[in-house]
Each structure stands twice: as structure tokens, then as C-alpha cells.
Design a protein that fits this description.
The chain has 11 helices and no strands. The longest helix is centred in the C-terminal third of the chain and has 33 residues.
């Protein structure tokens, strides 16, 4: 009811800029979209659901925390920012390496069990360990504060907007990965695509350090 009350107060027209912002922020290529595409191509849509849910939950919680004021506290601590960047970069590089070195999916039972997609917590860590993501959420909280009646309403509104948009966007990128996998016929093609996706994921680290 709180979210509905906020929406009713703001009006559908007033929400248009927020919706446009979250759609652009979540659907444009980046680390999360590269990982969702790679997971879809290697593990399929169903097994990638925890990853997509984790990304959505991570972004929703990050947006809610920013609306509540936590982001400003985190971003005011340079040492904490550096630590988050270092841990987040190491995690993304490890994921990029795992993707780049993988070949065609091995459908044997034992191999299938040993190859596990990124978990819900792993997906959320992509957002929680990215200071750029915190800065973006803080900017959204400041820009769209007038859409809600208070910090709690704003936190719920941003969480729903960012979380819902992220879930839809990741599903689209994951589905693209599933379709891409159907075009790959040889181990060489798989290695090439996996290498490209791994490189894209690694390159997504660069904006984190700017």
C-alpha cells in the first residue's frame, strides 16, 4: 500500500522520468548484462534464475539503502570505497576468467553437477561491491525524492522500480544468451564467444575505478 500511495501521490506522468532512468540504467551493457548473457548461453534460462534474482535483489536493496541515507555514509569513506572496489574487481575478474576459459557445456551428469551457475548471493555481490552502483542509486534517490512522501516511501518506490526493471532486463539478456547458444555448433565457436563475454565482463571493471 505504501508504494501504491506514493505512486498515486506522484502521478503516472511524474513517474515517467524515473521509469526511463531505471530502464536505461539496467538494460544498457555492463558487467551484470554480460554475466546474464554468459549464464544463459552456458546454463540455460531456468538455471540462471538465481543469478538474475540476485542482481535484481542487489540493485533493489542498494536503491532502498540509498534512499535511507546509507549510500552517502559509504561514499564518504574513501578507504571503504577502495576496499569495495578491490574486492569487487577481484570477484569480477575471477568470474571473467571462469567464463573465458570455459568451452562448450558438458551435458554429462557428473560434469553438469560440477559446473554451477552464479548464485543469488553472487549476483547481488555484483551490485553491493560496486561504488559506482551506490553513487548511481544515491543520485536517483536525490533526483526523485519528490515522488514520495518520505524516506520510507522513497526506499520502497526505488526498490520496486530498480528491482523490477533489473529482473526484466536480465531476463532479456539471459534469453539472448540462450538464443546465442543455439547458434554455436563447434568448440571453437564456444571458446570464441566465451572469451568475448569474459573480456566484456573484465572491461566492465574500468568504470568502477574512474
Amino acid at each position: 500500500m505504501s508504494v501504491l500511495s506514493s505512486v498515486s501521490t506522484a502521478g503516472a506522468g511524474s513517474l515517467a522520468p524515473l521509469l526511463l532512468f531505471v530502464v536505461v540504467a539496467t538494460i544498457t551493457p555492463g558487467g551484470a548484462t554480460a554475466l546474464a548473457t554468459a549464464s544463459g548461453s552456458r546454463f540455460g534460462f531456468r538455471r540462471s534464475i538465481p543469478l538474475m534474482a540476485g542482481i535484481a535483489v542487489g540493485l533493489a536493496s542498494l536503491a532502498a539503502a540509498s534512499a535511507a541515507g546509507l549510500a552517502s555514509v559509504l561514499l564518504a569513506a574513501p578507504a571503504l570505497q577502495t576496499a569495495m572496489k578491490a574486492i569487487g574487481s577481484a570477484y569480477l575478474l575471477w568470474l571473467a576468467w571462469q567464463i573465458a576459459r570455459s568451452g562448450p557445456p558438458d551435458l554429462r551428469r557428473g560434469a553438469q553437477a560440477s559446473a554451477m551457475p552464479t548464485t543469488l548471493v553472487g549476483g547481488a555481490c555484483l551490485l553491493w561491491l560496486n561504488p559506482k552502483g551506490w553513487a548511481m542509486a544515491l543520485g536517483a534517490a536525490a533526483s526523485f525524492a519528490m515522488l514520495a512522501n518520505g524516506p520510507l516511501h522513497l526506499a520502497l518506490l526505488l526498490a520496486c522500480a530498480f528491482g523490477g526493471s533489473a529482473l526484466v532486463s536480465m531476463a532479456l539478456w539471459c534469453a539472448a544468451g540462450v538464443l546465442l547458444a543455439r547458434l554455436l555448433r563447434t568448440p571453437r565457436q564456444w571458446r570464441t564467444v566465451n572469451t568475448v563475454l569474459g573480456i566484456l565482463l573484465a572491461v566492465s571493471i574500468i568504470p568502477m575505478w574512474r
